[in-house]
Design a protein that fits this description.
By secondary structure, the protein is α/β, with parallel strands linked by helices. The protein has ten helices and twelve strands. Strand 6 and strand 7 form a beta hairpin. It starts with 19 loop residues before the first strand and ends with a helix.
């Protein structure tokens, strides 16, 4: 079960600056037109890592890996859709990622405890297969997981409780946790050391929470320009030994590359 929120004190940074990565979905239109140039721009901002997404997999894994490494970047993690996941293990291995991340479960499973239990069983199987191939498996949340399902438990609780802690890990999206009505720090604490990665994006003030991924849930802004407690989030992440931090913005009101730059600049000020 998730733990209650509590205050965070102290520095938000470790002795060495945290590695900052960019989820390439943020710049998807540009990336699918001229990926080498986009990667060069991301590296120039100062990011050292990227996380890939489905729209890039029209490239062969070897070609995608070559473009990323050619820009001086690393790709420790790749997102794959629930319905395609079974077919992507060899691609992920060839791409050289350490993490295979399920970006969302099938919508047909969102609205019942049984649906989340089905996803949990599948996650255990994928976690074992990833481990057997020298990788690890993680799940990335949105807001639908935080809808109460039964006895006050949420879909996220079911995923945590019914998956093997040695095989299934989590990538918390701080925006979507807040959009689902949770304190991201409380969610991080409740997930504990199974939390291995974070998505960093901020949320505008004045909007109600939701449990649906639709236009009414889209209140994105650059990190440090919204309502989330980034010093507290990063301090908790350090306590939990989070491995990777990816800036992402699903939609931006400014050019997406400038959005990535603004988030990076803010994060480097506090890390």
């Amino acid at each position: 079960m998730l733990l209650p929120a509590a205050g965070i004190a102290g520095r938000a940074w470790a002795a060495e600056p945290i590695p900052l990565g960019a989820q390439l979905y943020t710049v998807r239109r540009q990336a699918e037109q001229d990926l080498p140039h986009v990667l060069e721009q991301i590296a120039h901002i100062g990011y050292t890592e990227v996380e890939t997404y489905g729209g890039l997999y029209t490239n062969s894994a070897n070609a995608l890996r070559h473009m990323i490494e050619g820009a001086g970047l690393k790709a420790p993690s790749a997102h794959f859709g629930y319905d395609e996941f079974d077919s992507r293990f060899n691609y992920a291995e060839e791409l050289g990622v350490g993490w295979m991340v399920c970006s969302a479960i099938a919508p047909s499973l969102w609205n019942s405890p049984e649906g989340f239990a089905t996803a949990a069983k599948q996650f255990n199987a994928w976690g074992q297969r990833a481990k057997d191939m020298g990788m690890r498996f993680a799940f990335h949340n949105h807001d639908y997981e935080f809808r109460p399902q039964a006895n006050g438990r949420t879909g996220y609780d079911i995923l945590v409780d019914q998956t093997d802690p040695h095989l299934v890990f989590f990538e918390i999206d701080c925006y979507w946790a807040a959009q689902g009505g949770l304190d991201p720090i409380a969610l991080m604490r409740g997930t504990g050391h199974r939390l291995k990665m974070l998505h960093l994006k901020d949320r505008l003030p004045g909007f109600p929470p939701s449990f649906a991924m639709n236009a009414d849930s889209a209140h994105f802004t650059e990190v440090g320009h919204g309502t989330l407690d980034w010093k507290g989030i990063l301090a908790e992440a350090q306590t939990l030994s989070v491995e990777h931090y990816f800036v992402e913005q699903d939609q931006a009101t400014i050019p997406p590359m400038e959005s990535l730059r603004r988030s990076y600049d803010y994060l480097r000020k506090i890390t």
